[in-house]
């Protein structure tokens, strides 16, 4: 017999959430804790994000350059080498000048928050019947993400150093709260 819950596209998420509610609860709690930490020390959180991404770019670029140089006769060699060099350069800039990197990352954060806000709002509309309070929290999180993106762009470049940490903290705090509410509601209905 076919279980209709798993064949209807709109019903896949609620069944999955019900089955794994505890994982969503744990993720929500961790996000809330990280959010509080980022809000408490926003400058450190901003610089940590810039330095961490810088090291990721630097290591990724070095690995890309090594593998490209090991395969000099492969198609697209020069493009691959140019990409690796650009990635290394981006990593060096972020690690060497994390304040400038924080400003750049703040712009990327604004774009991310707009996309995340739209996705959260659409998710809340798609699942408002199955997860009432969780969908409400997702909707609020989506609106908040879009408002934060507008504030970030308005504060540039002066407030970028603290804004990145605070806004990541706020997003984590509300996103974690939404996951906690959704997981607890899914637990009750399971």
Task: Using brief descriptors, characterize the structure shown.
single chain, 190 residues, mainly alpha, 7 helices
Question: How does this structure look, described?
Answer:
By secondary structure, the chain is mainly α. The chain has one domain (26-189). 84% of the residues lie in helices and 0% in strands. It has helices spanning 12-19, 21-40, 42-70, 77-96, 98-126, 132-155, 160-189. The longest helix has 30 residues, at 160-189. It is globular. The two termini are 21 Å apart.
Distance between the termini: 21 Å
> What's the gyration radius in Å?
21 Å
The number of E-state strands comes to 0
Helical amount: over 70%
**Shape, please?**
globular
Low-confidence stretches: 1-12
What is the H-and-E element order? HHHHHHH
* Share of residues in strands: under 5%
What value does the average pLDDT take?
A: 83
Whole-number tally of structural domains: 1
Q: Number of helix segments?
A: 7
Structural class: mainly alpha
The description of the largest β-sheet is: none
């Amino acid at each position: 017999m076919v279980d209709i819950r798993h064949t209807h596209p709109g019903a896949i998420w609620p069944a999955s959430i019900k089955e794994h509610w505890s994982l969503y609860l744990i993720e929500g709690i961790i996000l809330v804790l990280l959010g509080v930490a980022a809000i408490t020390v926003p400058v450190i959180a901003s610089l940590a994000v810039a330095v961490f991404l810088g090291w990721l770019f630097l290591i990724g670029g070095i690995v890309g350059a090594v593998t490209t140089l090991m395969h000099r006769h492969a198609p697209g060699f020069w493009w691959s080498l140019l990409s690796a060099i650009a990635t290394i350069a981006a990593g060096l800039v972020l690690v060497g000048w994390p304040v400038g990197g924080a400003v750049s990352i703040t712009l990327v954060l604004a774009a991310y928050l707009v996309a995340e806000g739209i996705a959260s709002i659409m998710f809340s509309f798609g699942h408002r019947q199955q997860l009432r309070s969780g969908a409400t929290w997702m909707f609020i999180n989506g609106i908040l993400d879009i408002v934060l993106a507008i504030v970030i762009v308005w504060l540039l470049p002066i407030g970028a150093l603290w804004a990145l940490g605070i806004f990541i903290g706020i997003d984590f705090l509300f996103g974690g709260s939404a996951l906690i509410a959704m997981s607890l509601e899914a637990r009750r209905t399971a």
